[in-house]
Amino acid sequence: MNIYLAGSMRNEPGLGHEFFDKVSDLLIESDPSLEIFNPAQVDRLLGISEEPKGKEHREVIGCCMEFIINKADRVYLLPGWTNSRAGVWVEIVVASLVDIPIYQIELENDKIHRISEVDFDFKNPDWNTKIDGIELQTLNALFAIKIWNVIGA
């Protein structure tokens, strides 16, 4: 199964690489048959150690979208994903657009506690949900819904 990891990166120390690597390792430890797409690896392959800009950022986004659209069986949201400025929301919308299920990972004591499916119903203009106690009828969610309406209608 091909898994895409989505989470807050650009707002995090070290671009969140250490956390992405840790969760990737935990997932592989729990199921060695998983193929994990870890965006931190893309950053490293492209030599990115600080927030990418311009063409460099387009390359990263292109690699991520390519995997989601053409290879991902599931998207896994890492804890803290709601701290993302925009990237995770774009990934969620794209995955939803191509009918890829989205799951949220919960950690407890540095172990995977639970992985549960999340329903993003962007087709419904009254969509509203709570995840981790956060009301997602926010500017980011509205932004994602607008993207959905532009590319998914």
Describe this structure in words.
The chain is α/β, with parallel strands linked by helices and 153 residues long. The longest helix has 17 residues. The chain has a 5-stranded mixed sheet, with helices on both faces. Strands 6-7 form a two-stranded antiparallel sheet. Helix 4 runs parallel beside helix 5. The chain is 41% helix and 20% strand.
- Proportion of residues in extended strands: 15-25%
Cα Rg = 15 Å
Topology order in helix (H) and strand (E) letters: EHEHHEHEEEEH
Shape: globular
Beta strand count: 7
Mean pLDDT: 81
Supply the number of helical segments.
5
Largest sheet features: 5 strands, mixed
Going by helix content, strand content and strand pairing, the class is alpha/beta
Q: Helical content, roughly?
A: 40-55%
The low-confidence runs, each spanning 5 or more residues with pLDDT under 50, are: none
Give the CA-CA distance, first to last residue. Answer: 29 Å
Oligomer: single chain
> What spatial order of strands do you see in the largest sheet?
2-1-3-4-5
Explain the layout of strands and helices.
Layout: E1 2-6, H1 17-30, E2 35-37, H2 39-45, H3 54-70, E3 74-77, H4 87-97, E4 102-108, E5 111-118, E6 130-131, E7 134-135, H5 139-151
Parallel strand pairs: 1-2, 1-3, 3-4
Antiparallel strand pairs: 4-5, 6-7
